[in-house]
Design a protein that fits this description.
Distance between the termini: 29 Å
Largest sheet: none
Number of strands: 0
Oligomer: single chain
Mean pLDDT: 78
Number of helices: 13
Strand content: under 5%
Shape: globular
Helix content: over 70%
Structural class: mainly alpha
Length: about 250
């Protein structure tokens, strides 16, 4: 199975940015191989487009998360039980309980199975607006971090990305969570005074979240848009494939 999947990746690499869009979209809901295996080689080949590639991967990964969300919402927990081990589902429930819907952001950034969290978000009735914000932060941070590592370290970046990137994301996540709880404790204990920065960030986040929440009722429109995007990508992909085959 692994041989088949990696043969597929080698084949789809020929289609460049279109292949990257397809894999980024599919991986967020059902495809087993992450878009990093396409993104990273492209970052090395065209470093001048590194940030653009990271942006495109983020956008299509989040769009794929919407598809995973609606699959989970439509079929509920039975689809999770069918495709994932029960202990993995319990672990996701634990993350949702402990960190709320922001566990989606953690999954999007770390090596955790992102598709399991997007499907679970639909099955557990997480707000679509929360999924959107958390996915943008998690996926965007991951892919842009990869791009910056390649830009900064050049050819040496491959060593760090292949051997340490997963560990780096976990360390950063743990550090951020620890810093948040330490800061909250110090604030509640009045050991430090707030600078207003955190309040400002929270205010902007809630404003953005509330703005997106207005569109929670437009799920059918969003599903139609996703289907249209899928059809467009499929037609574009097939047209390129047929053109090259001829």
């Amino acid at each position: 199975m692994k041989e088949f999947l990696y043969a597929f990746v080698e084949w789809i690499q020929v289609y460049g940015i279109v292949g990257l869009m397809v894999v980024a979209f599919a991986e967020s809901s059902f495809f087993p191989i992450p878009p990093d295996v396409l993104l990273i080689p492209m970052l090395f080949v065209h470093r001048e487009f590194a940030l653009l590639y990271a942006l495109i991967t983020t956008i299509f990964s989040v769009l794929g998360a919407f598809l995973g969300y609606f699959i989970g919402k439509k079929f509920g927990k039975p689809i999770l039980n069918k495709f994932f081990k029960r202990e993995h589902i319990k672990k996701v429930e634990h993350y949702f309980t402990k960190y709320g819907a922001w566990s989606i952001g953690i999954a999007g950034f770390t090596p955790l199975p992102y598709k399991l969290f997007t499907l679970s978000a639909g099955a557990f009735d997480v707000q679509l607006s929360t999924l959107t914000v958390a996915s943008l932060v998690g996926r965007g941070t991951r892919f842009f971090l990869e791009a910056f590592i390649v830009i900064i370290f050049g050819d040496r970046a491959m060593y760090y990305l292949e051997n340490y990137f997963g560990i780096i994301t976990i360390i950063i996540t743990i550090a951020c969570i620890a810093a948040y709880y330490i800061f909250r404790y110090l604030r509640s204990s009045r050991l430090i005074e707030g600078t207003g920065v955190v309040t400002s960030i929270k205010s902007k986040y809630h404003s953005f979240h509330n703005h997106i929440s207005k569109y929670n009722g437009y799920s059918k429109i969003l599903i139609g848009t996703l289907i249209a995007i899928c059809i467009f990508l499929l037609v574009l992909f097939l047209s390129i494939f047929i053109k090259n085959a001829l």
